[in-house]
Amino acid sequence: MKISQILELEDISLAEPVFSDLIYQEMDELITGSPGMAGKILVDEDDNPAVFAKKDESGVWTGCVTLFREPTLALIDFFEQFDLEIYQEDNETISDAVKEHYSHRLSDLTLPGADDLNPVRVKGIDNLLLKTVGTEKGTTCLDCCCGTGVGFMVMESLGMRPLAYDNDESLISRGFLSGRLKPSRTMWIDGRMINRFIKNKASLACGFMVGEIHSFNAPIWQEIISAACMASEKVLFTTGTEPEIKQVRTWVNDTGKKADIFESDADPIYDRWVCYTE
Hints:
With 278 residues, the chain is α/β, with parallel strands linked by helices. The protein has helices spanning 3-6, 29-32, 73-79, 91-109, 119-131, 150-157, 169-178, 218-230, 242-254, and strands spanning 13-14, 38-43, 49-55, 61-65, 85-88, 140-144, 161-166, 186-188, 202-207, 232-239, 259-263, 273-277.
């Protein structure tokens, strides 16, 4: 479902330039900085405001999304001038609609990266999930650093409800083009910020072929891994080398989870080493 459909509009633009901007309160100024003629507010099932929309003098509707941040007092005061129409929808439906909006914007503006999928890897990831953490059917599962979406595709085929995120827009764009990623379930964000973009903990977080991990980028990877651990009940990460997976295990254990590692023969390159929690 589109944001415009929820608000019973033919069309609406969102003021925040990219999805990752949605956590910043200063984005409210993009709405309050110019006059409006009418307003609508979309709230979630807990009556928390998720989208503020205004109509300008030319009849164009623009919204700002407060689903992942608290609205400023200036934004609330600005909308008190209108005889507001209030709409309500559940949080997940609104979140998926917002993700779809920005995913289509990303696709329109980003050249897709190369299609690097080895078909053999699909079966390997499928077997790996069944061997370790199981399928978690019907539950929300994170695809951390999703790339072009091979993990998302496999998790979905096993009956999970994957939610993907990555910081490389070209890979995400390729994932959309190939059909492996769904626009309504994908976010272009810094993985260290995942906990700002989800309401409840996921059942499982997976990161397939994280890295390469070197001394110069290890602090960043530690934050990404730690954030995924905090955002989920169980985790599964794969790397190409044994030193990398040992480092990942240390980071996972540092978050209070108990992790095991083993070498897999399913994929000698991408997912050779595995770290997972029961």
